[in-house]
Design goal:
mainly alpha, two-stranded antiparallel sheet, 4 strands, 10% strand, elongated
């Protein structure tokens, strides 16, 4: 059985054409259709990106507006919460001496000291230590 039209295209030497040659031939026949399809897909991708960008910008604007409204509405409540949650100064107390081990293995003695209280307490203590005659002068 000799067919006059082979099932696979052949090159000039009678050998079957390679995949690359088949692809080039197919692209040559359907070039306009392929370009139109790629343009349509690219256009849809750009449109989707624009829609997502607009939604993100609107969402950010809405969140910013809500944040400023919340800050304006609850400003006094935020102040009272901050006052309540502020750290209270520790009570003044004495720390006894101890030995501290350094990273290199040495041990050094640390003498006792006073700790705690606020800076306002220290100012009052300094005033108490001064002689009343010196404070008036």
């Amino acid at each position: 059985m000799n067919d006059s039209t082979p099932s696979e295209p052949t090159s000039g030497e009678g050998e079957p054409a390679s995949f690359v040659e088949k692809t080039k031939n197919w692209y040559g026949k359907h070039r306009t259709t392929i370009r139109a399809a790629c343009g349509a897909v690219g256009g849809v991708a750009v449109a989707v990106a624009i829609v997502f960008a607009r939604q993100a910008m609107e969402q950010n604007a809405t969140e910013d507006a809500e944040d400023t409204e919340d800050a304006e509405d609850t400003g006094s409540a935020d102040d009272s919460v901050e006052e309540d949650e502020r750290r209270k100064p520790p009570v003044r107390h004495s720390v006894s001496g101890y030995t501290r081990r350094l990273a290199d293995g040495r041990e050094i003695p640390v003498s006792g000291y006073e700790r705690g209280g606020s800076s306002e307490d220290e100012d009052e203590d300094e005033d108490e230590d001064e002689d009343p005659g010196e404070a008036a002068a």
